[in-house]
Amino acid sequence: MDENSRRIETRAIHAGQQPDPETGAVMTPIYASSTYAQDAPGEDRGYEYSRTGNPTRAALEANLADLEGGTHGRVFSSGMGAINTVLNLCESGDHVVASNDVYGGTHRLFTQVYDQYAVSFDFVDMTDPDAVAGAVDSDTRVVWVETPTNPLLNAIDIAAVADIAHEHDALCAVDNTFATPFLQRPLEHGADVVCHSLTKYMGGHSDVVGGALVTADAALDERFGFYQNSVGATPNPFGCFLVLRGVKTLPIRMERHCENAHTLATWLENRPEVQYVYYPGLESHPTYETAAKQMDDYGGMLSFELDATLEETSAVVSNTEVFTLAESLGGVESLIEQPAAMTHQAIPRDERIAAGLTDGLIRVSAGIEHVDDLRSDLQGAFDTVLG
């Protein structure tokens, strides 16, 4: 069978990996070596130093590139390391356009790190292509897209935004962490770069931190490789091994994540304690049609809004038993958090409220537990705090 015709469930297990030629080991070995013997000075066997390249890491990079439909992959010690590498492309005077409900850590990197290098940023409502077009100009170097967004789960029309970026010779980079390549492949819609926090669904077990960039542009990948090696935000081989292991079960896990999230979102829409539910798989969500067009399913993330104070909302997320109060997402266990006090606290309050990130907003990462237990747990927290 032609490898290119294989389904993603098969490629997740096999892409980029072959049994070890020395031993026949089915799993890619953990090459825990910092350096490699050379046949002569300057004549290596493909690897010279593990910051520059490592066989375990190379297998993961090839696997991720295949799943995203790209030709080149680079992995990093964290998702932020991957995002920073894209921003390394910017020079003084360059401009970046991003979504106004971007992940708080991304917002912090953009506004508190790169502002000192005279890189300017505009945060706009990317559900409106006209707003994107109005913000992009001749100085724009990168248009940064999250879809679905974090935490309002807005689906952004990748093809429309990519077209706008390319009209101005800017790059379109898409953070595909929430969707994963099982549900959405941005390169197919015109994006130049796909970014992942491998910590989330790709690893899938809350036991590893990592990031990745995938592209089909060899010249762009070469620049990413230069920054990857020069800056040194590279993962260790054991972390790469853990992500490779996690990716093998990505398709079956994502099916359950999506099923549980959709069930919870539908149930929450009918709860009197809840004012609004943000889930792109609900027809009530304003970006439902965009999500249906470019995603194969709607993901395991949802948010909902209570008519409650910051303190009351904090009490709700602190009174669950099956859900764990924690940042991050995408593990097999369900997590719950309050963006205003946790993941998006770095965003100034006025700016946060203007973007729809209210004090009563709760974000949920639906795990793969039985959905009845998840519903009962949320109801118990509502009853305890809100009566």
UniProtKB/TrEMBL annotation:
SUPFAM superfamilies documented for this protein: PLP-dependent transferases
InterPro entries, per database record: Cys/Met-Metab_PyrdxlP-dep_enz (IPR000277), Cys_met_metab_PP (IPR054542), PyrdxlP-dep_Trfase (IPR015424), PyrdxlP-dep_Trfase_major (IPR015421), PyrdxlP-dep_Trfase_small (IPR015422)
GO-annotated molecular function: cystathionine gamma-lyase activity; cystathionine gamma-synthase activity; pyridoxal phosphate binding
Top-rank EC class of the record's enzyme: transferase
GO biological process: cysteine biosynthetic process via cystathionine; transsulfuration
Transferase listed as a keyword: yes
Cofactors (names): pyridoxal 5'-phosphate
Record key words, sorted: Pyridoxal phosphate, Transferase
Family, similarity comment: Belongs to the trans-sulfuration enzymes family.
NCBIfam families, A to Z: PRK07811.1
Protein name: Cystathionine gamma-synthase
